[in-house]
Amino acid sequence: MREFEPNLLPISLGSVPHLDPETACELILRDFPQIPTWPQLPNRSFLENMYVQYSEGFPGVVLEDGRIYVDRSQDLDPGLEKLYLAYLEDDLDHVAISADYAAGLPAFLQALNSRGGQLLAVKGQVTGPVSWGLVVVDQNRRPILYDEILADAGAKHLRLKAAWQERELRPLCPTVITFVDEPYMASFGSAFVSLGREQAITLLEEVLGGIQGVKGVHCCGNTDWSILLSTSIDILSLDAYKYAQALSLYPDEVKAFLERGGIIAWGIVPTSEQVYQETVESLVEKLHQAMNLLVKKGISFDQLLESALISASCGVGPSTEPTAERALSLAAEVSVRMQEKYL
After folding, report:
1. Are the C-beta atoms of residues 144 and 138 closer than 8 Å to each other?
2. What is the pLDDT of residues 75-86, one digit of tens each?
């Protein structure tokens, strides 16, 4: 049995372009009242960049001139020892995320505590270990993913961040969904990224292992979907507007995922200016087309419907506020239209 039933409901990814946390929370609660997400505000501060946001407390991390890096010229051992001790003792307070790094989180907690109403779930997110390990570099600009000790430490650090966040959200609702955001999994297998399949799975499972509730992974590009589908995730979130065809190349893996209760969050609403060329009707049609790619490979349409969430294709943080608001409202409207048709 699933911890919660998706029921073609809308769900949002983390980032929005707004600067004011309360305004961002109002927007999320308007369009996603049953499964709201705390908003990341990358335009508010460099500290809310999705890689910087979860760096707080990592040994040797330096933020300067719009860069994030780990200074390996200093002695990292004391910091690493503290991190590993926190990991072994499950000391979540060691990695608490301060309001400076995530202004949307306390605003979200306050908004929901004062709002009341019935929630099916609440959602949080953490940057994934592959993407974090590729973007966060050392002082020589070498990604820490290629340092065995720092890559492992990064995954354990992010695991604790995810667990801390889940603990903070759980008083709002018994069901907490946590997405591990992995945009750089789109680079897997390319000449630019030296990463083996087993290493990717091991790092992902380290982070997923810290999540007690519903576990999701989001990748907004194309990737080897069999890797993500073979992990312990409950939800696969993808840019279905662009990459549904790519997912359909893995019918056996998708079928096995669905048969074990897996859920697909169909990111069918574009977050670029293309959103102005789409309507609810056109996006519902695109969603049917995306699902039918898998139906043609032998997967039941009813099974796809029963396991579906609806979302924008990616976080809307890089968009303008009007574009972001249109994308989020369209995701909610597509959800309503699909529910009316099939539930």
Report:
1. yes
2. 999 999 999 999
CB 271 within 8 A of CB 324: yes
Q: Contact, 197 vs 189, CB < 8 A? A: no
Could you give the CA distance from residue 182 to residue 246 in angstroms, rounded to a whole number?
17
| Type and span of the H or E element at 135 | helix 129-135
CATH of the domain at 239: 3.20.20.210
Q: Tens digit of pLDDT for each residue in 120-166?
A: 999 999 999 999 999 999 999 999 999 999 999 999 999 999 999 99
Calculate mean pLDDT across residues 15-29: 97
Round to the nearest angstrom and report the end-to-end CA distance of the chain: 19
| 34-43 pLDDT, tens digit each | 999 999 999 9
Query: 123 by DSSP, 3-state: which?
Result: strand
Q: What is the pLDDT of residues 72-119, one digit of tens each?
A: 999 999 999 999 999 999 999 999 999 999 999 999 999 999 886 789
* Residue 5 maps to a domain: no
Instruction: Give me the residues paired with residue 216 across strands.
Output: 179, 235
How far, in Å, CA of 211 to CA of 106, rounded? 20
Is the C-alpha dihedral spanning 88, 91, 95, 97 positive or negative? positive
Q: Are 308 and 264 in contact (CB under 8 A)?
A: yes
On average, the pLDDT of the chain sits at 96
- Residue 169 lies in domain: 21-342
Residue 15, in any domain of the structure: no
Nearest to 132 by CA among 165, 166, 167, 159: 159
Is residue 14 in some structural domain? no
Instruction: Give 145-207 as a DSSP string.
Output: GGSHHHHHHHHHHHHHHHHHHHHHHGGG-S-EEEEEE-GGGGGTTSTT----HHHHHHHHHHH
Q: Please count the structural domains in the chain.
A: 1
Residue 315 lies inside a defined structural domain of this protein? yes
